Amino acid sequence: MQLNDILKEFIFDCEVKNFSKRTLKSYRNNNALFHNYLRQEFKITNLEEIKTIHIKRYFKFLMKKGLTPTYANGVLKTIRAFFRYCLNEEYIEENPCLKVGWQKEGKVIINTFTDEEIVNMLGIYKFTTFLQARNKMIIAFLVDTGARNNETCTVLKEDIKDRVILLRGKGNKQRQVSISPLLKKYMIRYERIRDFYFKDKIVKVNNYFLSNTGKPLTIETIERVVSEAGKKAGVRDEIRCSPHTIRHWHAQEQLRNGLDVYSLSRLLGHENISITKRYLQSIKDEDNIDLAVKTSPLMNIRGGRR
To answer: What confidence score (pLDDT) does residue 143 get?
Structure first.
């Protein structure tokens, strides 16, 4: 079967499963580049012709171009997904990708905001106008929940409960995150300003965060809100001011405050704990020592005499 035809079928299947636009783009582009390599280097255009050695050659080619092991593993993940689909559809009898090993990644250090930078970013926007209130609420929402950009865009009014917020993560998987008292206070003020702003306007969607014309926010809009806050707050040049960097800060702060890595993994919506462990590796030794004091068995033991 022609690779181009199967790739279109594979992407359509991903769309039916409601994968995010970013995931669809990654699956489409990475597999298309791989297929183009096969066509140019080996004159391969049919699925049945692909062997494990061809995939290994491709990754050797990528590593020679200077790709990081982490990036290469991301590409391998998308190619594996393609072959897994072909196997499930019985287009192939075995998955040639399974014999291609992951690239060994070094210790990943995730640099993120300082507490002072987060406080300064929260102070950039005020509860004065609708857009100012919305932008302040977006920063507070990201900081307190660790939500992904797309999860923030798609949260609906009915997803906001008394004590929790329902988020729709990758692959449309749902999870709950808590509402802290301070976040609740921000939400009450934002909702009052938002409802007053739209009281005489027709709004056809039920998203929690809206544009000034009553439409759902885009990923790019939230990127701009965070980027502008970072610039005005004087965030260091080496730190990328993005929603995902706030997510990194949230994860590390949760660990510093004593949350275990397993619970954090569930709150962040990670597929496996190995992803979450990267945040633990990035915490400085002195912070780990402070955390150990907080969780000291002797200090926290209950009952009996001491």
So the answer is: 95
